[in-house]
Amino acid sequence: GTGGKEGKTWKRFQSYKGEAALPKEAESLRIFVDRKAQTVILPIHGFAVPFHINTIKNVSKNDEGEFTYLRVNFQTPGQLAGKKEDTPFEDPDCTFIRSMTYRSADGHRFDAVTKQITDLKKEVNKREQQKKEMAD
Amino acid sequence: MTTQFDRIYHALSPEVGKFRIAASGIAWKGEDSDAMVAVSVNDIKWAQWLRVARNHQLRVGLKDRRRETFDGFMREDHDRLAGLMKQHFGVTLETKEVTFKGWNWGVADFQGQDLAFLVSNKTSFELPLRQVANSNIAGRTEVSLEFASTSNKRPSKHAPDEMTEIRFYVPGTTTRGGRDSEAGSQ
To answer: Is residue B162 part of a domain?
Structure first.
C-alpha cells in the first residue's frame, strides 16, 4: 500500500522569534549558515533574510570565468519533478520564492557554503527519518 | 547643536562613516573616502526605522520621492534618534516591522519603487525595481527577475555576495483579502 505518505501534514517551523535573535554574522552581507537555528541567511539588498532549512530543496554551484554562482532552490508547489508531490504546504496559493542565485569571486567560500547547506539538509532529513522510524 | 553617530553606512556602501544630525538637516561623511551625503531640513518628509542586515536602518523620505538610507544604528539609538527627528524636522520615526520567520512563501506587494515580499503582513525584504535588468515569465506561474551588477569594480574576494536572480512561483489569480495595508485607507 501507499498509505504511509497520506498522513503527511504541514508542520510549523520558524527561524527566529525576532530581530534580536539574528546572529552577528548577518552583518557581513554574505550568505551565512546558522546551524543552530537550522537556517540559511541570505543577503537581499541590505536585508538579512533567514530561510529555514525546511524551505530549501537543494543548492547547486557552477563556475563562470572569474565568478562562482550559487543557486539555492526552494520547496514550492507545482514543480514538475516527474514524481508525485508529497510535500505539504501551509498555503499553496501564496507567492513562493522558488530560487535565488548569488555570485562571488571567492569560489572556495561558495564551496564551503554549498557543503554546509547540503550537510544541514542531510542532518535534518536524517533526524526526520529517525523520528518516523521511532513512531512506526 | 549637532549630534553625531559613528560607524554608520550610507545605502549599501561598504564604508562606514559619521552621521550627523542638526536643525539644518542630516549629513554623512565616509571615513576613508571623501564620499559625502547631505539632506536639507526642507527636503525631509518622513522617517522610518527598520532592522536590516547591518543592524538598524534609518530611512529618510525626501520631497522628490527619493529616499536616503543609513545602516548601522543600534537598538539603543532608537529613542535618541526619534527625539532628534521630531525636534529638528517635526517628523515621527515610524517603525517598519520586519519578519524573521524563515519562510519562503508570502505576498509580493508593490510599494512605490520597490517590490516588497511580505510574510504574515510583515516585510521580509524589498527589491528595488530600478535595478531589475531583465524579467521573464515562464509557464504562466513562474516569474524571474535578474539584477544588474551593482559594482563595476574588479571582482574582490571580500565583496558581499551579490544576488543576480530571484524566481517566484505565482500560482494564479487568487486575490488575497484582509491585508492591513488595505484597511483604514478611506
So the answer is: yes
Residues A22-56 have pLDDT tens digits of 999 999 999 999 999 999 999 999 999 999 999 99
Question: Please, what are the domains in chain A?
Answer: 26-78+95-135 (2.30.29.210)
Among chain A residues, the shortest Cα distance to B124 is held by A49
Among all residues of chain B, which has the CA nearest to that of A57?
B104
Distance from the first to the final alpha carbon of chain A: 15
Secondary structure (DSSP) of A4-41: GGTT-------S-SSGGGS-GGGGGSS-EEETTTTEEE
- CATH number for the domain spanning B79: value is 2.30.29.30
Quick check: B160 and A77 CB within 8 A?
no
Question: What would the DSSP string read from start to end of B6-45?
Answer: EEEEETT-SSEEEEEEETTEEEEEESSS--EEEEEGGGEE
ipTM of the complex: 0.89
